[in-house]
Amino acid sequence: MPVQRRTSYIAGLASAVLIVVPLVVHAQGQNEQATGTLLVKCVDASGQPLKDVRLWVMGLRMAQPLEEKSDKKGEATFKKLAVGLYRVVGRKNGFEPSYYEPVRIAANAQETVTLKFQPGDVNKKLYFEDPALLQQANQLFQEGFKLLQEQKYPEAAAKLSESLKIVPANPDGHYFLGIALIQQRKWDEGRKEVEAAVALNPDEPRYREVLKILPGLRLGDEGSDAMARRDFKTAIAKYTEQLKLQPDNTDAMYNLALAYANDGQHDRALEIIRDAIKRKPDEAAYRNLENLIQQHKEQSVIQQAAKLLAEGDQLIKEGNYQAALEKYETGRKMLPKEEPAVWYAIGRCHANLNHPEQAIAAYQQAVRLDPKKPEYSQALAALYLEQKRVAEAIGVYEALSQQLGERADEKLFELGKKYLADNNPELAIPLLEHVQRVNPNHAESYYELGVYYYYAGDKAKAKPLLSKYVEIGKDQKHLEDVKALLAVIERSTKPAPPARTRRP
Fold it and tell me: Is the pTM of this model over 0.70?
């Protein structure tokens, strides 16, 4: 069987030309009429609240950022922020600066952001404060994207991860990192990165498309793994679930058909691959698989039938003809064409079960399928003779001899001679008489039948037969015997002399 078909995980989603744009997602224009609230929580590396953190909230249309300090709970609240996107930045002596972007403020709602601070230099510049950092992040991003297109997935993931360390709010960075991880079958990690991209830019359809197809891709890959382990039932389950999520995925249909075929469920496999062909009639691989499944189905059926027939052969040896008959009948129906040997075996079973008519019918089928096989014709003829159907037995021998380009008279003579030896004249006589009809010069048939009639006391029938042997016979011993028998017959049939009348 061919291998399963794998659809590229990225499915063209990472094949577009990269447009280099600033990696920061700036705040969009705020709605002056609607406002919301932002709660900022500040914690250290252990998760403990940080007091007196200087916090700035800035948006695209804000002339000056808003500034607050965190309280003893590590919290600060910014109220009446116009609806839109914002960036939050925090600094505290003894800690590196921390930021979060974009923060999406919705009308009449509160958004909460947690900034986590690591020990370090408070004056460390962030990417949006240092053009060199932004350029470095851009360079790493472009290198990672190029490696992704070259299908160098581990290297691409490394570059994209470095870029995201500088600019964690780059949605495309998370998206393409997710693709690189998915291609390495790091499903959960990849999904989290794509989800991060959606959170940063919910309006980008590419991100949601990947999340939509990801469960199906994962199921397909798990199905492929199961196929490689030859765990076909698990593969069937995985591909079936994949098709529930992706009902139009014809490659998944191909894989499911392949799994069913390898599991021996050829009819189901053909049903599925034919559905795929209807959807994509020009896909040569699908038609090739259909043909291959059909061939395997036929081979599998033949193998199963052969197993049943072999079991039947063994049962015949054991004398269990009824069980053997059941095996043969089941196996015969599974074969793509009628086999004479199977019908012959069925005939043997019926004959031994004393089912003469069924046995005759089976032998007739065997002879019809292979008229040149002596074994089949002889079995049929023997059964006819057993049923006292001599004329039909003779017909079988005549037909066999004609097929083999031979004469039947000698075979029938030997058979008649055997029946005479077995003291079965009822069968022997018509056989020998037939030999004489088809071959009037078959001397030994006259000898055997004449001698039989002589000792049976029917000298009237014996005499012409023995006389014929004297005319055409060649065996000197038989000639001497025949002449002696004829002399006895002559003496026994010579009329007695007339009685003399005594004179007075």
Answer: no
